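for the recovery benchmark. tokens below, seq after
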């Protein structure tokens, strides 16, 4: 898989990703919902409904960003669930903490800075993990996926949402134009980071989506894997168990 980095081909991807999200943390939530027209909220709700059937009590939200996936899980009344959100961006974590504090949900959601490829948790610690739009930013996709599998309990479920790129006309053409021209222009104006929203479509193009990603999950030891396309294939939910 081609490695796409936010700023330069020199240096580690994970350091550049952390820097990028620190740079755009102040505008991330606004742009995220603006660009998706709020559809990303519906995608998260669907993913959580699938996870809710498993009744997990301890959940790891990897690449948590500002905590939207974790907050949505609480809103959808995952009874008694405790969620730990981890991210490599201190800036995003700080925004997430403020959002959780404003809603007085510190009892249900906590945050810490951590690297997805070296998670600071014991083997078999979590009932489930979630990731929304984060795995394509991993420096080593297989290592990150293996680490998340490691910290799952036997029978635990992983739920991943990721952009996948539609394949059918005209959604593919509209999506490509929007992603490559409209988003970078607006993203640069609002976030003041010229590369962040150019990196986004590049990273989506380089990501092994659909059956290719399911195959990687299976190779790493995930079982009962499946892919659920969303909104005509713009994104997908991936599910796998330990």
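predicted aa per position
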């Amino acid at each position: 898989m081609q490695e796409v980095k936010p700023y330069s081909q020199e240096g580690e991807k994970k350091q550049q990703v952390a820097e990028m999200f620190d740079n755009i943390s102040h505008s991330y939530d606004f742009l995220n919902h603006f660009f998706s027209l709020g559809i990303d909220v519906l995608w998260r709700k669907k993913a959580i409904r699938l996870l809710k059937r498993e009744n997990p009590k301890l959940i790891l939200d990897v690449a948590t960003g500002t905590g939207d996936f974790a907050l949505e899980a609480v809103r959808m009344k995952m009874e008694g669930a405790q969620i730990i959100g981890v991210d490599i961006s201190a800036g995003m974590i700080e925004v997430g903490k403020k959002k959780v504090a404003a809603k007085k949900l510190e009892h249900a959601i906590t945050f810490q800075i951590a690297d997805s490829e070296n998670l600071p948790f014991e083997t078999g610690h979590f009932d489930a993990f979630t990731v929304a739009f984060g795995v394509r930013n991993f420096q080593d996709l297989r290592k990150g996926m293996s680490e998340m599998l490691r910290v799952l309990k036997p029978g635990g479920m992983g739920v991943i949402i990721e952009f996948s790129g539609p394949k059918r006309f005209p959604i593919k053409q509209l999506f490509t134009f929007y992603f490559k021209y409209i988003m970078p222009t607006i993203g640069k104006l609002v976030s003041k980071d010229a590369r962040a929203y150019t990196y986004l479509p590049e990273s989506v193009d380089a990501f092994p989506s659909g059956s290719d990603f399911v195959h990687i999950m299976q190779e790493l030891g995930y079982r009962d894997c499946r892919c659920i396309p969303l909104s005509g294939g713009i994104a997908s939910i991936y599910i796998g168990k330990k």
